[in-house]
Write a structure and sequence with these properties.
heterotetramer, A alpha/beta, B alpha/beta, C mainly alpha, D mainly alpha, A: alpha/beta, Rossmann fold, 6-stranded mixed beta sheet, 25% strand, disordered N terminus, B: alpha/beta, 7-stranded mixed beta sheet, 4-stranded parallel beta sheet, 40% helix, binds adenosine-5'-triphosphate, binds magnesium ion, cell membrane (chain C), ABC_transp_permease (chain C), transmembrane helix (chain C), transmembrane transporter activity (chain C)
């Protein structure tokens, strides 16, 4: 158990304290006696592998999950949190891991949703008041969003800001300083947006306590005052960023030595002569134009750029998922049919979408079904499935990629994020015919361990000649993984930076090109 | 099942107490068919039995399913069914099923022309009303009320029913003899009051004051038209006729809001079908004695105008009419 | 073509099977449970109801409904809905009655073909024009009704010689209704087709999450068109079965079967939102709905109470058969 | 107004122009008033349906709820069946009954988690059963002069029914735009899961929406009863699908969270204009249904055309 997790006497500066929290789900113990304390005006980090229980712990703090055992104290007082409103009344609010705004309402409505206060009188909206209330919240975090804009018309980062503005509403509920929980707020933000967010976090620390979760350990160390590490539903220790590095954190998370390196190691086997695999000439679509790009067999090319640079659309366009208006694309010298994903699949292109939950996996379907979804012919005799053959193939890939699942018939939604991602990757590998992989944020939301497994897999695939187009989660990832980095801005390719293992550029070099 | 080779007409040998009576109509939510079932109850009570009331919501498939289910429920040789087939096409399967199960059957209203009770052992009678005649009778009354000239609109019933077609044919026949009358428009309102209301309103806009008479293929539509006239402020200026003699319509006729309607006497229909079947089943009537005309006939119908409407305001059914000697009293004409 | 990737899975030990949990298998038995309890209740109200002829009649009555609903189940599994099936069955009955004299036995095949084409056409309109299937098939419903009315002259079309379609309405060994056999065969063939080929997971994936299915390269558009095509074909076959038992075709003959067919699908436990469900379930659902439709009145429930009971029981049946773990939010 | 919003009104305009060119009777004032009058009941019923659709649910109960309400109001106001003469109270009771039936649908959805498709179908059957019980063999005719005047009385050329419909649409629009119930209904259709995360319990709002829909059906039934002059079991039969069609044609999507009362009202007008116009230009009764169906499909297709894109999900 933790050495420092439990504090014997309650210091007055402790605003939130959790003791012996237990939560079991059928088959998993998500929380196994967690202890935690949050002090006044601090940013507390929470680190742990996928499935370590971070989100579950945080959800108990806002009354969304009822713990099986354990106590929660707010400012020394034992509380029982039945729902989000209860929690808000105690000054605890949370920004959820998956964005939780209602898309068809205005930003203002979302900000006040659930505790409208004077914005609703006797069931009737007072739009002017609501607008003012929302504006006040947005001003706090220095955002310039129009409160009456429909939420689905905002960019992702703007929506994140709305979420934060919304969570700050709890200040109105409590006279004391609030506790604000941010569950993986950065996983979908661009570097510049992350910087803005951190500024807000530091500003929040002035009057509130913040719990911050991220899988990017350097980020955690950067912004937090203290970091708790969770493993298997237990608090395994506390780290002070001042005297720790990411490696230490990771070691605590997994309980053994880490080997994180996404920078290219030495032994990458390559074809001697680079062979052109993908060539893009003058490709144009709604969000990009004049795109010329070559990717060799066995090469990993990362595309970087800010939101709106058009790189996601380009990636989708190469898969036929968004329409193109001009241009020519060839794969191994043959014209690539961009009329739809079906054609791209048939030509040996694979695509791992960023929005895993919506576009990648089919949640209620089994691991096996999800894995064979794109390459249905696998394990078939003619059009007929031969169950034994198909099961064998699926099982082999499950162990090949060490996918942790109770079995091939388990619904994929019951797997941890990293394992879900591996299944989606395996989807393109089971056919044995993939030539080009389009990876849109393949490590989004994955813990360090899962991430390095995905890296390993990408390298292995590259080693066998697969060409990879990578939209990386961070600049470091892009630089680390890629042989070449392509910078996009405003729908055009503005720079190409070679990234050989021995001469990696610095992130700063890239940022210069991006803006 | 066609006629047995030896032509043995089924002799009724049922104990009166063993007879089971079934009356089946579309639904109990319109007054005409509800009164039909009540008539059936009245007859059943008069012989100390109970009628099983069945309704099929105007769904042909449900009617067939019900009939087959009833016929599959044990001994059916003393079963008597008085059935209102949903449409012409529903009669044949009902007849075949009943014949196979040796149940006695009387059908009313709908039957394809080529299908004849005389070809079956257990299908005793089919009785209906001369739709052409009723359509013509009310048309004549209408034209008379209009003074022999003017414009009429016609509201048709459910288009694929014989009743709708025959009645309209009657109107056309009457129009042929009254050159002063012009048929301005004809639309279907599916025998429905609400649809008639909407259609009439539209037609009133279309033809305006040219309309001086409304011919409706049933009373429900006539009543809908009457409402439309009221709402257009033309009540009393346009003559309206219908068919069926539902209570509201008879009342309207007696109050001179409507010109005429035709009564088929629903309660009597509900009783008579069961009575015929009961008499045959118990042997009081011998199939051999039933004439061909009695096996398929037009029953008597009554034109109701303001003169005689008072007599029809309170429907009275005389159980004496259901006695085995009297069951064919209202045979008006052989089926054409 | 250059050599594709050669990364090979190692052949390690097989993985443990993780299958449906016990509660999951239990919910999949619920439709049968609903059916059995309904039969018991009806038999308690009227003992004669359990007799063999009576049961035969129920099974026979359920057959056209089952065929009609089976096809539509596939459209529902894909995440759509087909409201045109009943009108299409009516149109098919008219076409069959009109074509029988000239085409004889081939008429049935022709009718099913035409109905399938009509279904496919709706599917194409839904997919290519991006109109909700609800609207397309609602439009189809009124269109097919109009066509049926016009070509039949708004009158039933009698079948003089029903020889070529007698197979649709006989008793095998005097006990088993041939229509029920047809229904079982249709369901079995469709179920096998889905189970034995990748079609099954294509349909499920499309129903649960169309974006994911598309991005996995599943031919979602042809699949949906196919689903509506099958739905149409089944409607055509249901029309044939109805003609076989009523000896005529009618332009409104099957119209009233729409809501019972959808009810059969839902009572079977298929999620109306798509993805989860199956064809055998619909077969059971059709039996439940038929029992409710005819059983109640035949055991002597009066019209008004029949309607009330039908409403209450059908909701109860769905409450029982629903697999709540498979539907995230109930709409 | 967004592109999506503009489609249906433009379609309505085009249809009106075309029909005006084809039929001189169509373009008379009298006919315009007639159309408004004919649209009144459907407009009120569609107000109810719209809110349910906004939730992402569906409501097939209008037929049954209206039947029950229609008979209840007919026997409670001054009528040809009994001596009751509750007047406005009778109307209120009928609307409350309808709201109660709607509430049952909602409770079944929320408590038993049965999809609304089935609960409302069941409640519709229950409503028809109640109606048949009250009907009891003879149609109760409405004598009550004030209720009868709803259909006959006119103010500024429009019938009272039209005015009632206008008021209902305005109230519904207000509810949708300015009340918590309306906005939450919108939100539930947009992202139901999210509301729980914001501490909003969606159950009560869902039940309230179904209840409100029931109340609109009840009022619609009272209006029909006034029009027809008696209580009819079948008085709501055609409104279930008509109201859903009208809402969807107007741009209230079946998936929920999109459109609203004004959209649906455009749909109501579109359908009513079509029904009226096809009769006036003399389209054969046999093909009217088909033509109407085709036009609806084309109207929706054209309205949806500017929004088409790959990967768009249409259910
Ligand atoms: N509602 C639930 N039902 C069943 N199991 C659950 C549920 N919620 C969480 N779990 C399980 O509890 C464990 C902890 O999950 P949790 O979401 O808290 O992890 P996490 O640390 O937030 O992971 P990540 O970094 O991927 O977000 C996991 O094994 C998860 O599968
Ligand atoms: N009275 C009001 N004052 C200010 N803003 C409002 C008012 N009513 C609604 N809004 C907000 O303005 C935006 C537009 O309104 P709403 O969502 O009702 O539908 P809309 O504009 O018709 O959108 P659509 O029809 O495209 O869905 C909404 O996001 C709503 O929250
Ligand atoms: Mg988490
Ligand atoms: Mg709007």
């Amino acid at each position: 158990m933790s050495a420092e997790g439990v504090v014997a006497q309650r210091s007055p500066s402790v605003v939130l304290e959790v003791r012996g929290l237990v939560k079991a789900y059928p088959g998993v113990t998500a929380l196994d006696g967690v202890d935690l304390e949050v002090r006044q005006n601090e940013v507390l980090g929470l680190a742990g592998e996928n499935g370590a229980g971070k989100s579950t712990l945080l959800k108990t703090l806002v009354g969304l999950v009822r713990p099986d055992a354990g106590e929660i104290y707010v400012r020394g007082q034992r509380v029982r949190l039945r729902n989000v409103v209860d929690a808000a009344n105690h000054g605890i609010g949370m920004v959820f891991q998956e964005q939780s705004l209602v898309p068809n309402l205005t930003a203002a409505e979302n900000i006040v949703l659930g505790c409208e206060g004077p914005a609703i009188r006797r069931g009737v909206y007072r739009w002017a008041t609501m607008r003012a209330l929302a504006q006040e919240q947005l001003d706090k975090i220095g955002s310039t969003i129009d409160p009456l804009a429909r939420t689905d018309s905002l960019t992702f980062a703007e929506r994140q800001m709305v979420e934060i503005a919304k969570v700050l509403r709890i200040e109105q509920r409590t006279h004391n300083s609030p506790v604000i929980i941010l569950d993986e707020p950065t996983s979908v933000l661009e570097p510049s947006e992350i910087e803005t967010l951190f500024e807000q976090v530091r500003r929040l620390r002035e009057f509130a306590s913040v719990i911050f979760v991220s899988h990017r350990l350097d980020e955690v160390l950067d912004v937090c005052d203290r970091v708790y590490v969770l493993r298997g539903g237990q608090s395994v220790g506390e780290v002070r960023p001042a005297d720790a590095v990411a490696g230490d954190l990771h070691r605590m998370m997994i309980g053994s030595e880490s080997h994180e390196d996404h920078y290219h190691g030495s032994a990458v086997t390559r074809d001697e002569t680079p062979r052109e695999r993908l060539t893009v000439r003058g490709l144009a679509g709604a969000a990009f134009r004049d795109v010329d790009l070559d990717v060799h067999a066995g090469e990993i090319v990362a595309v970087v750029g800010v939101h709106g640079s058009g790189r996601e659309e380009l990636c989708k366009a190469l898969f036929g998922a968004v329409a193109t208006t001009a241009g020519e694309v060839t794969l191994d010298g043959e014209r690539l049919d961009l009329t739809g994903p079906r054609a791209a699949c048939a030509a040996g292109v694979g695509y791992v979408p960023a929005e895993r939950k919506v576009e990648g996996m089919v949640g209620p379907m089994s691991v096996a079904d999800n894995m064979t979804l794109a390459k249905q012919r696998v394990g078939c005799a003619g059009p007929v499935i031969v169950p034994k053959r198909q099961n064998d193939i699926v099982d082999k890939w499950i162990s090949r990629l060490s996918i942790r699942t109770p079995g091939r018939r388990t619904a994929i939604q019951r797997l941890s994020g990293g394992n879900q991602q591996k299944v989606i990757l395996a989807r393109w590998l089971v056919g044995g015919d993939v030539r080009l992989l389009l990876l849109d944020h393949p490590t989004r939301g994955l813990d360090v361990g899962a991430r390095s497994e995905v890296y390993r897999l990408m390298r292995e695939l590259a080693g066998t000649g697969v060409a990879t187009l990578l939209l990386a989660d961070s600049l470091e990832e892009a630089i680390g993984m890629a042989d070449r980095v392509v910078v996009m801005s405003d729908g055009r390719i503005v720079a190409e930076v070679p990234c050989p293992p021995d001469r990696k550029p610095s992130p700063l070099d890239l940022v210069k090109e991006m803006v | 099942g066609d006629t047995d080779a030896d032509g043995s007409a089924a002799a009724g040998t049922c104990d009166p107490a063993d007879v089971k009576l079934v009356g089946q109509v579309r639904n109990e939510s319109n007054p005409y068919e509800a009164s039909w079932l009540d008539g059936g109850d009245l007859f059943a009570a008069s012989v100390g039995l109970k009628q099983q009331r069945l309704t099929y919501d105007g769904e042909s498939t449900k009617q067939q399913e019900q009939i087959r289910q009833i016929l599959a429920g044990g001994d059916t040789t003393c079963l008597v069914m008085n059935v209102l087939p949903n449409g012409d096409s529903d009669t044949l399967p009902i007849v075949r099923a009943a014949d196979q199960a040796k149940a006695f059957l009387v059908t009313q209203w709908n039957k394809p022309a080529e299908l004849k009770p005389a070809d079956y052992d257990r299908w005793i009678s089919h009785l209906t009303y001369d739709g052409v005649e009723s359509g013509r009778q009310i048309a004549d009354a209408l034209f008379e009320a209009m003074g022999g000239s003017g414009g009429v609109i016609a509201l048709q019933g459910v288009l694929d029913t014989a009743a709708a077609k025959d009645r309209f044919a009657g109107l056309e026949a009457a129009l042929g003899q009254n050159p002063g009358i012009k048929l301005l428009d004809q639309q279907t309102a599916n025998f429905s009051r609400a649809e008639a209301l909407a259609v009439t309103k539209t037609l009133l806009t279309k033809h305006g004051d040219a309309i001086t008479g409304i011919w409706a293929a049933n009373d429900d539509m006539a009543l809908g038209a009457l409402e439309a006239l009221g709402q257009a402020g033309r009540a009393g200026k346009v003559a309206v006729v219908g068919i069926d003699a539902v209570p509201d319509a008879v009342k309207a006729v007696s109050e001179s809001q409507m010109t005429a309607t035709v009564s088929s006497d629903g309660p009597w229909q509900g009783g008579i079908g069961l009575a015929i079947g009961y008499c045959v089943a118990t042997g009081e009537l011998d199939m051999a004695d039933i004439t061909d005309v009695q096996r398929a006939f037009f029953a008597e119908q009554f034109l109701i105008t303001s003169k005689n409407a008072g007599d029809f305001l309170a429907p009275k059914t005389d159980p004496a009419g259901f006695k085995c000697d009297n069951v064919f009293d209202r045979v008006a004409a052989p089926l054409k | 073509m250059s050599a594709p990737v050669t990364i090979r899975p190692s052949s390690d030990a097989a993985v443990v099977k993780g299958g449906p949990t016990r509660s999951e298998s239990l919910t999949s038995l619920m439709p049968v449970l609903a059916l059995v309890s309904l039969v018991i209740a009806l038999a308690a109200a009227k003992p004669g109801f359990l007799s063999q002829p009576s049961m035969t009649a129920v099974v026979d009555a359920a057959a056209p409904l089952a065929v009609l609903a089976a096809g539509a189940t596939i459209a529902v599994l894909c995440g759509g809905i087909d409201l045109s099936i009943a009108a299409l069955a009516s149109l098919s009955s008219v076409l069959l009655a009109m074509w029988l004299p000239t085409l004889g036995g081939l008429a049935s095949v022709a009718v099913v073909g035409v109905a399938a084409a009509a279904g496919a056409l709706q599917g194409a309109a839904h997919v290519f024009l991006r109109i909700p299937s609800f609207i397309v098939t609602l439009g189809g419903m009124s269109l097919f009704s109009s066509i049926a009315l016009v070509i039949s002259g708004a009158a039933p079309v009698p079948v003089i010689d029903d020889g070529p379609i007698r197979w649709g309405f006989t008793r095998i060994f005097d006990v088993v209704p041939s229509a029920a056999v047809v229904a079982v065969v249709v369901v079995a063939v469709l179920a096998l087709l889905i189970k034995a080929t990748p079609l099954g997971s294509w349909i499920t994936a499309t129903g649960y999450s169309e974006p994911a299915a598309r991005l996995a390269g599943i031919p979602v558009d042809p699949l949906k068109i196919g689903a509506f095509c099958v739905s149409g074909a089944c409607a055509g076959l249901a029309g044939v079965l109805l003609v076989a038992r009523t000896f005529s075709g009618g332009p409104t003959m099957a119209d009233s079967l729409l809501l019972p067919a959808v009810a059969a699908i839902v009572v079977g436990g298929t999620a109306i939102t798509g993805g989860h469900g199956g064809l055998w379930r619909t077969l059971v659902g059709a039996l439940v709905v038929t029992l409710l439709r005819v059983g109640l009145s035949v055991v002597g429930v009066s019209a008004a109470y029949e309607s009330i009971l039908y409403g209450a029981l059908i909701v109860a049946a769905v409450a029982l058969t629903l697999d709540r773990s498979k539907v995230m939010v109930v709409k | 107004m967004s592109v999506r919003d503009a489609g249906p009104p433009i379609a309505l305009l085009v249809i009106v122009v075309v029909l005006s060119l084809l039929s001189p009777q169509f373009r008379t004032t009298g006919n315009a008033l007639n159309i408004l009058d004919a649209a009144a009941v459907l407009a009120v019923v569609t107000c109810g349906t719209t809110f349910v659709l906004l939730l992402g649910s569906i409501d097939l109960s209008a037929a049954g709820v209206m039947g029950a309400s229609s008979l209840v109001v007919a026997v409670l106001v001054e009528n040809s069946r009994n001596n009751l003469d509750l007047g406005i109270l009778g109307i209120l009771i009928a609307v409350v009954l309808a709201a109660a039936l709607g509430c049952v649908s909602g409770l079944l959805v929320v408590l038993l988690k049965v999809p609304s498709f089935m609960t409302t179908l069941g409640v519709s059957a229950i409503g028809l059963g109640i109606a048949t019980l009250v009907f009891d063999g003879v149609q109760p005719g409405v004598v009550d002069p004030s209720l009868r005047s709803w259909a006959t009385g006119r103010l500024l050329g429009l019938t009272y029914l039209t005015w009632i419909a206008v008021v209902c649409v305005l109230i519904a629009w207000f509810v949708q735009r300015y009340t918590r119930l309306g906005r939450y209904a919108m939100a539930i259709g947009g992202a139901e899961e999210v509301l729980a995360l914001s501490g909003v319990r969606v159950g009560p709002y869902k039940v309230a929406v179904f209840t409100m829909a029931g109340a609109f059906y009840g009022l619609g039934a009272v209006m029909v009863t006034s029009q027809l002059g008696s209580g009819l079991v079948q008085s709501g039969a055609s409104y279930t699908f008509a109201s859903i069609t009208a809402a969807v044609v107007g741009g209230t999507l079946l998936v929920g969270g999109r459109g609203g009362v004004l959209h649906s009202t455009v749909g109501v007008l579109l359908l009513t204009v079509l029904t009226n116009g096809l009769v006036l230009i003399g389209v054969s009764p046999y093909v009217q249904g088909g033509v109407q169906g085709l036009i609806v499909v084309v109207a929706v297709a054209v309205a949806a055309a500017p929004l088409r894109h790959r990967n768009q999900v249409v259910k």
